[in-house]
Amino acid sequence: MPDDTFNTPTPYTLHLNDDLLELTKKKLELARFPEEQTDVGEDDWSQGAKVNVVKRLAKYWRDGYDWRSEEARINAEFNQFKVKVHIPGYGSQVLHYAHQTSARPDALPLLFVQGWPGSFLEARKIIGPLTNPSDPSTQAFHVVVPSIPGFGPGDPPTKSGFGPLFTARGFKKLMVEVLGYERFVTQGGDWGSMITRSMALQFPQHVRACHHNFLPCGPPPWYKAPLTMGRLILSPYLYTKREMDSVKNMKCYQKEQNGYLRVQSTRPQSLGFGLGDSPIGLLGWLVEKFHEWMDVANYEMPDDEVLTFVMMHWMQGATPGLRYYKMAYSEEGELGMKASFTRYLDTPIGLSHFPKEIALPPYDWVAWVANEQFRREHDRGGHFAAVECPELLVQDLRDWFSSEIVGKAMKD
């Protein structure tokens, strides 16, 4: 892409180098695996990814998985582009994105942002129903799905400091200056919720409504919200069952499941030497997250889906996705990631609550930081809602973004 070309999209076709595919196969052939301890049960994931699961997936990756066929399907399903933008405070950055427009004249522009260890492929099952609903009375969308730089085909940042704050500025440039959507709505889970929240804080004139299925905020300080703190203290008596389950999920995550966060937000590059060089290491690291964060009682990822998700990080050598945590947790100031979740956001938001989500707190915690106008609780689903239960997420997006509240916000 020429150095002097900004805001000019170029069509993109995903194609991995044959040398990388051959090297991957050789590394899989040479893999070593740990041994399970004899007193750890087959369904006990408390020590991490199960050896038999990783072995089975590794064998299939080596002998059966067809990346070229999967690559062709991805290129057929997504209209992909790359574009160079100038990001205030950072500099130039090339963005990868998919853009699917609707034939409907009343379609709303929707920015969908994924998280880690996902990629733009998280939108794979929802982009069609959102752009082309079978019912003409159903809300339709022009869907834009960017890759966080360094995730999947997204060019990794070459300088440090690129976290949610600058990602938000880059995605605003994409939506407004490249694609011409002056007003739009957003959906985000995991990093996507943080990025789109940052966009709404920085650019409320453009981001008119948000939807989240993940919102990692804590309780407000007791001296600012004594009733909320009192309700927390008396939670066994005052919380709904869903709120109690949410707090339980968050405590479990904090106690048992956030070791990856500590490493990736402090020394990601050291970890990258292992995960970026070993397909088995990366497979084990990600498979455990899929198992722990999904509602596995109701959805089991097919092997091809697992490996394609892994390939989205293997193609980059894993490190850029790991490094994003370091950059995010290093952000300072009132717009930095951590501080942004202590501020109130006036932009109207809708929430979808899936029972196995790791971070969607009680109602009164959310009310402290967000203008929540829509909430729907589901009886199945987890952290990867667009993958696990796409039809539920699609319906929530249609219902929330077709509401009078959002309609008014888009016109004001």
Description:
By secondary structure, the chain is α/β, with parallel strands linked by helices. Helix content is 45%, strand content 15%. The protein is built from 19 helices and nine strands. It is globular. The relative contact order is 0.14. The model has no long low-confidence stretch (mean pLDDT 95).
Report the count of strand segments: 9
Q: Whole-number average pLDDT? A: 95
Please identify the structural class as seen in this structure: alpha/beta
Shape: globular
Estimate what percentage of residues fall within beta strands: 5-15%
Helical percent range?
40-55%
Alpha-carbon Rg, integer: 21 Å
Which stretches of 5+ consecutive residues score pLDDT under 50? Answer: none
Number of DSSP helices? Answer: 19
Tell me about the biggest sheet? Answer: 9 strands, mixed
What distance lies between the first and last C-alpha atoms, to the nearest angstrom? 38 Å
Strand order of the largest sheet: 1-2-3-5-4-6-7-8-9
Order of helices and strands: EHHHEEEHEHEHEHHHHHHHHHEHEHHH
Give a quick precis of the structure.
The chain is of the alpha/beta class.
Give the arrangement of secondary structure elements.
Elements: E1 10-11, H1 18-29, H2 51-63, H3 67-77, E2 80-87, E3 91-100, E4 108-113, H4 127-131, E5 141-146, H5 164-178, E6 184-188, H6 191-202, E7 207-212, H7 226-233, H8 235-238, H9 241-257, H10 259-264, H11 268-275, H12 279-293, H13 303-314, H14 319-329, H15 337-340, E8 345-353, H16 363-369, E9 370-377, H17 385-388, H18 390-401, H19 404-411
Parallel strand pairs: 4-5, 4-6, 6-7, 7-8, 8-9
Antiparallel strand pairs: 1-2, 2-3, 3-5
Helix pairs in contact: 1-2, 2-12, 5-6, 11-14, 12-13
